[in-house]
Amino acid sequence: xxxxxxxxxxxxxxxxxxxxxxxxxxxxxxxxxxxxxxxxxxxxxxxxxxxxxxxxxxxxxxxxxxxxxxxxxxxxxxxxxxxxxxxxxxxxxxxxxxxxxxxxxxxxxxxxxxxxxxxxxxxxxxxxxxxxxxxxxxxxxxxxxxxxxxxxxxxxxxxxxxxxxxxxxxxxxxxxxxxxxxxxxxxxxxxxxxxxxxxxxxxxxxxxxxxxxxxxxxxxxxxxxxxxxxxxxxxxxxxxxxxxxxxxxxxxxxxxxxxxxxxxxxxxxxxxxxxxxxxxxxxxxxxxxxxxxxxxxxxxxxxxxxxxxxxxxxxxxxxxxxxxxxxxxxxxxxxxxxxxxxxxxxxxxxxxxxxxxxxxxxxxxxxxxxxxxxxxxxxxxxxxxxxxxxxxxxxxxxxxxxxxxxxxxxxxxxxxxxxxxxxxxxxxxxxxxxxxxxxxxxxxxxxxxxxxxxxxxxxxxxxxxxxxxxxxxxxxxxxxxxxxxxxxxxxxxxxxxxxxxx
Length: 502
Fold this sequence. Notes:
Elements: H1 7-30, H2 46-56, H3 69-85, E1 88-89, E2 97-107, E3 112-115, E4 118-120, E5 126-128, E6 134-142, E7 158-162, H4 177-194, E8 200-204, H5 213-222, E9 224-226, E10 239-242, H6 247-250, E11 256-261, E12 263-277, E13 288-294, E14 299-304, E15 307-310, H7 313-332, E16 338-344, H8 352-359, E17 368-374, E18 384-388, H9 398-412, E19 415-416, H10 436-440, E20 445-449, H11 468-487
Parallel strand pairs: 6-7, 7-8, 8-10, 13-16, 13-17, 17-20, 18-19
Antiparallel strand pairs: 1-12, 2-9, 2-12, 3-4, 3-11, 5-10, 6-11, 12-16, 14-15, 18-20
Helix pairs in contact: 2-7, 3-7, 7-11, 9-11
């Protein structure tokens, strides 16, 4: 009897071969890469970092201020760069974007102030230091010192006095020293006067504060930015800062204040840009190593030496373009876990973009293995850097810290300044960047930085002042740390009992 071969039988060798190949491919895809395998450093090119930096920090971006079309323009620029690299959109509805609302509360433009019947120009002669509703028409009680409040009934009175130097003074060489001087002086003095039940407080600038009024006053004019979910806490007592020239109104011992103070609330869109580079392992790729930075800065402000654009090259265009470079490297050689890139908006308005994303992640929160955040990574001495979150009480994951330190020792060899991680450091730098909301949410997190410099938050923070070689080196350190996190089979965890001091 003749044996009839079926078509399926003739295909068995081919099918067997395909199954074998498929098995081998799957095995390779799932085989963890050792954490010591070399990252794709060649994909991080100084020329590309330079080109991206000079575009994002250019005058045409107008300082990328949160809640303005300039921030949205910068976000679109970042998203388009991510698309060209080949990163997948990981925002809302299949896009690169996560929009959210900013609530801005300001002093009303209809606010009117008069001393002795003479009008004071808002934001030129007088600064209302916080939005508040109040209507006043009353004599002013002049106080020569805080001693004048002793044994005196000031309840319901409008009081005025000279701004007193805060005790203690801000630390020498602290960033934005004059700004912090005024904030500290106002907070201390007004708090003491409020205990007397006064109706309003007028503070006349002293010689130290006077030159800082334009810069500080710009911040008061900006008002308060919040997410709509955050409660508004309007002050019960108006505090008004006056130029030194206002002293003449009180020289005769009698003065009258007439004030109609109002507040206005607006909502503006801000945006996080989110992209993803899938990992190579079919299982571990469901987990994400989150690279974090912010694309916004301070926008247009009071001119300094004729320049009114706060370009924010170091703060934080450096990290924004570093994340693009890391994306290129991850596409060239994927880690086992996926890389998630979040360019936050509204960081300069109070870490609002990172706070929003930590509360509303576009991936499962449990899938975020670690957050590697950077802020200002392109200035100061070539071999200096800092890793905040590496010492207690800021260290929340010893395993993550060890990976970062090992990556630096193995690849980038920076000399690390740990002093800025101390809870006693006057700058409080640890709490001033986008890793904080994630750490508070119980996710391992670190903060890579090359620290502050004299051009911080001034129009002098220009792309031309960035050390591109150092920027590339810091980018490689962040990338190498993320590479280790992505390729270690056991995910990093939060240390038992880890808790920030505030």
